[in-house]
Design brief:
By secondary structure, the chain is mostly beta strands. The protein has a single domain, classed as Porin (Beta Barrel). Strands 1-3-4-5-6-7-8-9-10-12-13-15-16-18-19-20 form a 16-stranded antiparallel barrel. It has a two-stranded antiparallel ribbon with strand order 11-14. It comes from Paraburkholderia largidicola.
C-alpha cells in the first residue's frame, strides 16, 4: 500500500512538472459586421461580412522547455469567414501561419514554415493598417502594395528573429523557390529592425520577391494570394510612433517597385508592362490614436500615395488620397464594437485605374467610400 502511494505521488509530480514545462495556447479573433460601399463596379452595396477590419482567425502556439534557456516551438493559424464558415487564404487549413522551430533566451528564434516577411514583422505594427490585431483591412495602402496588411505570406521560409538588445531587435527571412534548376524562380528574401525606448518606437524593413509571375506554384509566394503578378517586387520603408499620455502619433513611409508587372488584382485589361517598365508606389502615412476613456478609443489615418506606371497608352502618374477614421467601444478587454469609415480618391492621370479600397470591388470612378460597423471578440 505504501509503495503504491509513493508511485502515485511520483506520477503526479512528474505530470505537474511536464505540464509546467510544456504549454499550448489557443487564441483567436472573430470579426463580424455590416458594411456599406457607395460604388462597387458602378453600384452601391450593403453587405454582411467577416473581417472587414480584422481578419477572423484562430491559432495554436506551443512551447516545450528543452533546458538551458532553449525551447521548441510551433505556431498554426487558420483564417476563416464567420459568415459562411469557409477557409480563407486560398482554402488553406493554416493559411495565416504554420511553422516550427527553436527559441533561445540569449540569441533569438529560428523557425521554418509559412511565415510573415520582415516588413510585416518590424514596420507594419507602426502603421494604421498593421497595428490592430490581424490588421485593419480597410486602411491598407492602395492594393496593399507594400504588404503592411499582410496580403501574402511566405512559403518554404526560414526566419531568424533576435531577442531585444537595449531595445533593438532585428531579423531576416528567406523563402525558397523549391525549384530544381531555378533557385530564384519564385523566391523572396527580407530583413528588418526595430527600436523601442519608452514612448518611442521605430522600425524599418525590406523585401524582394523574384519571378513572382512564374509558373512555379510551389515557390515562396502563391500567385492567388498576390495583388500583383510581376517579375520582381522590391518594397522597403521606415516609420515610427510616439506616445504622449493617452495619445499616440505615427508616421510611415514605404516604397514599392514592380518590374515586368502583368496584372493588378487579377486584371490585365490595363495593358500593363507593355514596354517592360512596370509600376512604382511611394506611400506617406500619418496616423493617430487616442483613448478618450478606458472604454472608448478614437483612431485615424491619412495616406498620400504617388504612383508611376507604364502601359500601352504611355507613362502615367496616378495619385491616391486615403482617409480612415474609427471609433472603438470596449465592452470588455476581449470584446469591442467598432464603427469605421474609409474614403479613397484617385487622380488617375489617364492610367485607367479607379478607386479601389482594400477588400472591396473596384469603383467605377475616381472615388470610393466604405462605412463598416461590427463586433470583434478576442480569445
Amino acid at each position: 500500500m505504501k509503495k503504491t502511494f509513493v508511485m502515485a505521488a511520483l506520477a503526479a509530480s512528474y505530470a505537474c512538472h511536464a505540464q509546467a514545462q510544456n504549454t499550448v495556447t489557443l487564441y483567436g479573433v472573430i470579426d463580424a459586421g455590416l458594411s456599406y460601399t457607395n460604388n462597387q463596379k458602378g453600384s452601391s452595396a450593403w453587405q454582411a461580412g467577416s473581417g472587414d477590419v480584422t481578419g477572423s482567425h484562430w491559432g495554436m502556439l506551443a512551447r516545450e522547455d528543452l533546458g538551458g534557456g532553449t525551447k521548441a516551438i510551433f505556431q498554426l493559424e487558420n483564417g476563416f469567414s464567420v459568415m459562411n464558415g469557409t477557409l480563407r487564404q486560398g482554402g488553406r487549413l493554416f493559411g495565416y501561419q504554420a511553422y516550427t522551430g527553436l527559441s533561445n533566451d540569449r540569441f533569438g528564434t529560428l523557425t521554418l514554415g509559412r511565415q510573415y516577411d520582415s516588413v510585416v514583422d518590424y514596420l507594419a505594427p507602426l502603421s494604421f493598417t498593421g497595428h490592430h490585431p490581424g490588421g485593419n483591412n480597410l486602411s491598407a495602402h492602395p492594393y496593399d502594395n507594400d504588404n503592411l496588411n499582410n496580403s501574402f505570406r511566405v512559403n518554404n521560409s526560414v526566419k531568424f528573429a533576435s531577442n531585444s538588445y537595449a531595445g533593438v531587435k532585428f531579423g531576416a527571412l528567406y523563402g525558397f523557390s523549391n525549384e530544381a534548376g531555378g533557385f530564384d524562380d519564385n523566391r523572396l528574401y527580407s530583413f528588418g529592425t526595430s527600436y523601442e525606448a519608452g514612448p518611442l518606437r521605430l522600425g524599418a524593413g525590406y523585401f524582394q520577391a523574384d519571378n513572382g509571375g512564374s509558373s512555379n506554384t510551389n515557390g515562396a509566394l502563391t500567385l492567388t494570394d498576390r495583388t500583383f503578378i510581376a517579375a520582381r517586387q522590391r518594397t522597403y520603408g521606415a516609420g515610427g510612433t510616439y506616445s504622449i499620455g493617452a495619445a499616440t502619433f505615427g508616421a510611415v513611409w514605404t516604397r514599392t517597385q514592380l518590374g515586368g508587372l502583368a496584372t493588378i488584382n487579377g486584371a490585365n485589361s490595363l495593358g500593363l508592362a507593355a514596354n517592360g517598365e512596370g509600376m512604382s508606389f511611394s506611400n506617406y502615412e500619418l496616423n493617430a490614436s487616442y483613448s478618450l476613456t478606458p472604454t472608448i478609443a478614437l483612431n485615424g489615418e491619412y495616406t498620400y500615395t504617388s504612383g508611376s506606371m507604364s502601359n500601352a497608352t504611355g507613362q502615367h502618374h496616378p495619385k491616391w488620397h486615403e482617409v480612415s477614421v474609427q471609433t472603438d467601444y470596449f465592452l470588455s478587454k476581449r470584446t469591442d464594437l467598432y464603427v469605421q469609415a474609409s474614403y479613397q480618391h484617385i487622380s488617375a492621370d489617364g492610367s485607367g485605374l479607379t478607386a479601389d479600397i482594400s477588400g472591396q470591388s473596384a469603383s467605377s470612378n475616381d472615388q470610393q467610400i466604405v462605412v463598416a460597423v461590427g463586433m470583434r471578440h478576442r480569445f
